[in-house]
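Could you help me review a protein record that somebody else here produced? My question to you is simply how this chain folds and whether the tokens agree. Thanks in advance; the entry in question is below:
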Amino acid sequence: MGAAETPKTPVQIAPKTAPAEAALTVQEGVSDAARSVARGLVFDKNPYLKMAFTNPYNLSLFTGALAAAGLTLNPVLAVVALGLEGLWLLHAPDNSRLRHLLWDPKFEKLRKAVEAQERAERLTSVGDEDRRRVDALVARQEEIRRLAAQNPSFTGELLRNELVKTDRLVNAFVEMAVTCSRYEAYLGSIDTDALEKDRRRYEQAARGGEPTDPRTTIAKKNLSIVGRRLEKVQEIRSYLSVARGQLDLIENSFQLIADQIVTMQSPQELSGQLDELLDGVEAIRQTARDTDKILSGIGIEREM
């Protein structure tokens, strides 16, 4: 009797994709790529154009017309739809009334949402009290914007130019709050009493040892390093005192501006107060940059 034959597993043949389906897949891929390129090259450079294109009514009419043209195999309908879409995208983004009624409110809402998210990310390292202060400052800024818009002495363009400065001040407030939190965390990790004790010990060893003794040389080097660390601790404390005072000044100034802005006769009155605050902020920023450079020079990491 012959050896039993091993049954063979039947070979499964994958179903072939119909040529029409394959062509449709390729066409969709090319279309998606084209839309992606268009968004990157055109839409991101012109937000009003993007808003005009992505308007729900525009998309519904445009895609509906193209779908109808495809179903009825009517190229004329497709050409008309493309032509009307071109006219809409050519003229609608530059229409000031449409910008004011439709798109500017959406941009403002989106801007606030993005800024709020960015602030939240930047404030992850600060305490609850500083977060509350930032939230209160942003609320005060919105109040200033609302009251300024109600003042007939403020024209639109001048108002926008001045209110941009409040954005810079809010960002500076957040930046200083984060820096203060970082410096305070560093100071909390330093035992200054132990540093003072080490300084006295190294000073005594440097003075009492023989000049040629290696132990004396090492004591002098340690004394220099400990002394520099104590100096930097004092500089950080000085910065914190000034920066915290500047944070208070920004808060109080925003409150004063909110109280005064209804009766202001000219944007220059607002401009002077904001410029003075910005000058003070820039001085604090420069101090922080100098302090960070010094701390980096003695081996202290910027981010802790």
Observations:
- The chain has ten helices and no strands.
- Residues 126-297 form one domain.
- Confidence is low (pLDDT under 50) at residues 1-6, 9-31, 37-43, 300-304.
